[in-house]
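Bug #77: duplicate submission created two jobs. Keeping one. Sequence:
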Amino acid sequence: MLSFEEQVIPLDGWITQFIDWLVDGYRWFFQIIKWPVELTLSSLDNGLLAIPPLLIILAFCLIAWRVSGLRLTIFSFAALTFIGLLGLWEDTMITLAMVFCSVIFCTIVGVPLGICAGRSDRFDALLRPCLDAMQTTPAFVYLVPIVMLFSVGNVAGVLATIVFALPPIIRLTSLGLRQVHPELVEAALAFGATNWQVLRKVQVPLALPTIMAGLNQTIMMALSMVVIAALIGAGGLGAPVVLGLNSLDIGLATIGGLAIVLMAIVLDRITQSMGTQKKN
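Kept job's structure:
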């Protein structure tokens, strides 16, 4: 008679053996995957830390003014200045480098996959279970295999963030293409446009606001991974939060969390305004 008092299927052992097999036999492959992420992250990190803080604040304010207006410009200036006055500027730049690096690779991978899913029902049906699993798997579950395959540090944190933040941009890119009216596509084909021209000049421009919404969600999810990534040695604004949690220092944890919130609001408003401009 079947009993559920003892483990019948040793799935945990099989998974551990599989990861050990990957680490032992294919570590070189994962180092190849790690190399472009490490190179991009170090370039962004060094670049942001080398630029004077005032120039970065002015750059954010200029972008905010161009895409939204005076209110967002004032808020961006106040938020970034306040973060600097808290003594968290360096951590903020490390966090921004990790977020930008994650978003770059999410865009490089996610937009083409979203386009393929938007143009092929079969590919979309194959991809959807993978995206469901990526979005519903708790973020902490990513950390153990990431650490085993890529060790600890900022690069491992970025790789975990990429996996966590990738689904929204794929889903919304696919949705944007599917929302383009079929008659517009048929009209373009009737005038002799190729499939590539239809994609480049009709579908992608019309789907761009939805794609920008996916980019916005990817940025927000990347920022939400900052604290979790700090648990595997990633620096940035997650470090004071984790340190405050470990030492029960509520003040340190609060200022780290507050800086993350302010940075998230600035990035969210800017990317939302970009998407609104595309609609107009």
